[in-house]
Amino acid sequence: MERILVVGGLSGIGKAATQNLKQSFLVETLSRTEYADPQIKHHSLDATDSNKLKEYFKNYPSYDHIVVTAAETPIGSLESLKDEDIIKAINQKLLLSYYVARDIPWEKSIILISGFLSARPGPASALQSAINAGIEGLTRAIAVEKAPKRANCISPGTIDAGLWDKINPNIRATIMEKAKSRTLINKVGNPLQIAQAIRFAIECEFLTGETIYVDGGARFGC
Ligand SMILES: NC(=O)c1ccc[n+]([C@@H]2O[C@H](COP(=O)([O-])OP(=O)(O)OC[C@H]3O[C@@H](n4cnc5c(N)ncnc54)[C@H](OP(=O)(O)O)[C@@H]3O)[C@@H](O)[C@H]2O)c1
User: Fold this and answer.
1) pLDDT tens digits, residue range 37-69?
2) Ligand 1 pocket mutation, candidates 10, 13, 100, criterion most atoms within 8 A of CB
3) Cβ distance 125 to 132 under 8 Å?
4) Which residues pair with 210 in a beta bridge?
5) A Pfam family this protein belongs to (predicted)?
């Protein structure tokens, strides 16, 4: 059975990917949380600490595939975010993805997660748009540099789970209503829909260097 590591696999999109993939793969998870589920091997590590990652995985057998859903990025307008928050966000998503791709051994494919704001900026999305575009560029570069190993990126639209679980329910409901109205199908997404795209990217051996937008057409909505 092929082995997959889901970095960020305990919540939101990563959790849905873990649940979906464990039906056909041997799945392990990695995040900062200490976690003991006898069914799934979990590595408690901060993936922004590249020295620890290297040391920890030095003698570890390579994974067949790695999925990176881990991130922690503040949302705010160009002027509102402080320098330290901007640097932290780049570290917590773009550099984290870079470190994982470089420091955890993998043999067949890696799946990174960006977000549709790379292609459809909003009124307060400069940081997210830049980081997500960076992730998409990183994916293409890894695909070229590591060929014939494959690298692909899934770019979700607004998914009503995961990072939104930390937001006040009333504010979250307003954001979801607005996000719905910006799609072509008047819906926000759920984590399983992104997990299905992740599975496709893992299983389709002719796919590499690609970004798949799973956003309900939010790039084209009004
Ligand atoms: N939800 C959406 O609407 C949406 C839309 C577009 C794009 N995305 C992107 O999709 C991805 C997943 O989002 P989500 O909503 O599922 O978020 P989430 O529920 O907040 O999950 C992020 C996961 O990353 C882990 N993590 C954060 N920093 C880490 C670190 N330094 N080392 C290891 N693990 C770390 C967290 O676990 P620990 O706290 O245990 O470390 C958490 O499980 C993110 O890249 C997000 O930007 C989400």
Assistant:
1) 889 999 999 999 999 999 999 999 999 999 999
2) 13
3) no
4) 152
5) adh_short_C2
